[in-house]
Design goal:
12 helices, alpha+beta, D-amino Acid Aminotransferase, Chain A, domain 1, 381 residues, 29% helix, Dna Ligase, domain 1
């Protein structure tokens, strides 16, 4: 069963639903893409969740699950994943020496820095994208970050439901060494992980926490599939995840892979997970709901050294959306040599104006994108 929700439903997802005749909950968003007679009622959906696998394109669906499936195995797994402090507690046996601490927002300014371990990351215990996420190198930066945090919280009020972003509680945790990656995968009924894609997350510099770009390639899958599969199988067992799709963010220093967060019920957000179709000819929705396991040896044997990436046209945090009249998409796309899919996003009501899937053989193209000043593409009043 699938629950469709804002902010974005892709054509591939809709086509996949129609082709496979997947059950879809009847709600306002689903009716924009499918006829009402093709949808199932709330009562039928609740009953189906007892026997069917459940996927959603957006964490906005977590409110419906909380309201209608409270106490179920699915709801419990979501609660465990969505609260980063709960997730850390669940996997503590795998990483017994890892420092983290949950702090109420009102207490952040009161806590003694002697209780913290610098450098660290500060972020909402329940969050999405990079909202409210700050790296903090030392005590002096701590005070500056708290003032920036107040401004950012004011900006995102009302943008996402509390199930998706809740700034009442924060987690501080030690800065994990290594490169950052993201993984789209699912746990099967035996808590074993099936990996559907691996992305590397490059940054402009040490203070960059944006989601500007992620990329994948034959060499990335080949190198990182074994250690990440090993980590995920351990997590599945200790946290007792079963029949569960997720998007994992982690860091890897060449020896140890440590999770940053495990996002429940979805793969890469905004249907960006569709890039697996471009790169590997994997339909991730079918893979999970039909319990398919990619034959990575065969897939990789048929690929060259191309880099597949997506980039997000993000609106700067200090830029009022209501000041934007339009976006110069033509100028923006000049930075991308071979765009495969261009998704223009409603910039008036969202923190981004575009998502682009692309292919390149030159990593410098991605490095250039990381350095872009997005103000240059915004047409203002």
């Amino acid at each position: 069963m699938i629950i469709l929700e804002k902010p974005y439903v892709s054509d591939l997802l809709v086509e996949t639903i129609k082709k496979n005749k997947f059950h879809v909950l009847n709600n306002e968003v689903a009716r924009q893409y499918l006829p009402a007679e093709a949808l199932i009622s709330q009562q039928a959906a609740v009953e189906l969740t007892q026997n069917e696998l459940v996927y959603s394109n957006s964490e906005n669906s977590l409110g419906w699950i909380s309201d209608n499936l409270q106490g179920s195995k699915l709801a419990d797994m979501i609660l465990l994943s969505k609260n980063k402090a709960n997730f850390r507690n669940a996997i503590k046996s795998i990483f017994p020496n890892y420092f983290y601490k949950e702090i109420n927002y009102d207490d952040l300014a009161k806590i003694s820095t002697s209780e913290l371990k610098f450098p660290l990351i500060l972020k909402p215990a329940v969050g999405f994208l990079s909202f409210g996420v700050f790296p903090v190198q030392n005590e002096d930066e701590w005070k500056n970050v708290l003032s920036k945090l107040d401004n950012e919280i004011e900006k995102i009020k009302g943008v996402f439901p509390l199930n998706v972003v809740n700034t009442a509680s924060f987690i501080v945790e030690e800065l994990i060494n290594g490169d950052e990656f993201a993984v789209d995968a699912y746990f099967d009924e035996n808590s074993e992980a099936t990996i559907l894609n691996i992305f590397k997350h490059p940054f402009f510099d040490g203070k960059d926490v944006s989601d500007r770009a992620y990329y994948t390639s034959k060499s990335i899958i080949s190198q990182y599939l074994p250690p990440f599969k090993n980590l995920l199988d351990k997590i599945g067992k200790v946290a007792n995840y079963k029949n569960f799709p997720f998007h994992l963010e982690l860091r890897y220093d060449g020896k140890t892979a440590i999770p940053i967060e495990l996002n429940p019920m979805r793969f890469c957000g905004w249907c960006i997970t569709d890039i697996a179709k471009n790169a590997w000819n994997i339909n991730v929705y079918e893979a999970f709901l039909n319990q398919q396991k990619p034959d990575w040896n065969k897939i990789l044997s048929e690929r060259d050294d191309a880099i597949y990436y997506f980039t997000i046209g993000d609106i700067p945090n200090n830029f009022p959306n209501n000041n934007i009249l339009d976006v110069n998409y033509e100028k923006y796309l000049q930075n991308i040599s071979a765009p495969q899919t261009v998704r223009k996003i409603d910039f008036k009501n969202n923190p981004i104006f575009a998502i682009v899937f692309a292919k390149t053989y030159d990593f410098n193209e991605i490095k250039n994108i990381l350095s872009l000043n997005m103000n240059e593409y915004l047409i203002t009043k």
